[in-house]
Amino acid sequence: MTPTPAPAWLWRVLKFGPWLGAGALLILPAIAMRFTEEVDWTAFDFVFADGMFLAVLLPWELAMRSSRNPMRLAGVAGALGTGFVVIWASGAVGVIGSEDNPANLLFLGVVAVAVVGAILARFRAEGVATTLYLTAALQLALGVAALILGLGDEGVSWPVDLIGATVVFTLGWLLSGTLIAQAGRGSESVPGA
Known about the structure:
Blueprint: H1 8-35, H2 43-66, H3 70-92, H4 106-120, H5 125-149, H6 160-184
């Protein structure tokens, strides 16, 4: 069964909306810094945020150009969004204790598995879905290992933040993999996943 194509206006929103949203999110800290001392971004913070947004928006652009399957695009958006939030949360506030805890670097490996796996699978739906399932398993395993080994910092919402983040991130990878697997039945690749 072929999915029903979305209206043209929706494709324009999906194509340009994320770019506009990223621009707005980058402007907000600049505005907030003029009114409060609680927001104190450095040039590095803005460059890092730009890089993070580009790392998500460029693959999204490729996915939008190569597929009109809404389920596939939802899976790609879910995977890109989950990877973005994993890196952002690990670096900005920390998942395993505070952001200064070096154990948070473990989560970069989770995202690397997703990226490298998708590339090795040549963005084919079945391979990308399998990669995302493995990524979910790794996310869960690292969260459990960090909990068992007590890698968090005392007094920094430990271990509640780790448990919550592990559940949310694991479900994000699983849902994305499932959407891509369902969309991929009968098709060959998932560019941008």
